[in-house]
Amino acid sequence: MKVTHARNLGVLARARIVLALSAIPALSSAAAAPISNPAAYCKAKGGQVEVYEYVSSGGEFAKQARVCNFPDASGQDPDGHALVELSTLFTTKATLAALAYYGKPAWDGKRASGSPAKDYCLQLGAAATVRGVWKLDPASGEFGLCMFEDGSFMEEWTLFYNQAGIIRGVDLGTVMRFRNPTQR
Predict the structure, then answer these.
(1) CA 91 to CA 175: how far, in whole Å?
(2) Which of these, 35, 40, 108, 125, is most buried using a 10 Å CB contact count?
(3) What dihedral do alpha carbons 36, 40, 42, 45 form, nearest 10°?
């Protein structure tokens, strides 16, 4: 009788656990499902999706760039932000822009233009913004994007500050889906 009673108590205890767990609201399938959209991923990580337009020195519109902007949340650096192309942010595969960010090759200090960030971009073997500017809108400031051979890009200053150990906006290593290959 004691054995049967103990078994019944065990069954009863398991039933109570099942009932208690069933009372907990389940996560919605949307919350549990992986984000399959780069723009939604950007927003989920605290960034803002922005579309920059390249305007040549003659004023002609050339193309658009979709980026995720991670502004400085601390309020200490109102101009501080990290700009990264949406597909570089979202992919789980290596891009040249992501590898440059993680690798942090030291700037050689050579100045060929008026901008150390532009010079650093050229040192990385990428194309710096020349003969034009990237703008969010006609009234906004100008941004230089460091364009790599594989089509990936980041803002020139994001890469430049990062190689010096200065994080502006957010450490992109904490939000890019491609993880630092040296820290696996």
Answers:
(1) 11
(2) 35
(3) -90
pLDDT tens-digit series, residues 54-94: 766 666 666 788 889 998 877 777 678 898 999 999 999 99
In 3-state terms the chain splits into helix, strand, coil percentages (rounded to 5) of 35, 20, 40
Residue 142 parent element (H or E):
strand 142-143
In our burial notation (b when 16+ CB lie closer than 10 A, e otherwise), range 88-99 reads bbbbeeebbbbb
User: Do residues 172 and 131 make contact, with C-beta atoms less than 8 angstroms apart?
Assistant: no
pLDDT tens-digit series, residues 90-110 = 999 999 999 999 999 999 999
CA distance 70 to 106: 23
Q: Are 148 and 97 in contact (CB under 8 A)?
A: yes
Amino acid occupying residue 8: N
Buried b (16+ CB within 10 A) or exposed e, 135-174: beeeeeeebbbbbbeeebbbbbbbbbbbbeeebbbbebee
3-state helix/strand/coil string of 15-81: HHHHHHHHHCCCCCHHHHCCCCCHHHHHHHCCCEEEEEEEEECCCCEEEEEEEEEEECCCCCCCCCE
Query: For 71, how many CA atoms within 13 A lie in the half-sphere containing its CB?
Result: 9
Q: Hey, how many other C-beta atoms are within 10 angstroms of the C-beta on 11?
A: 10
Closest CA to 135 of 54, 56, 80: 54
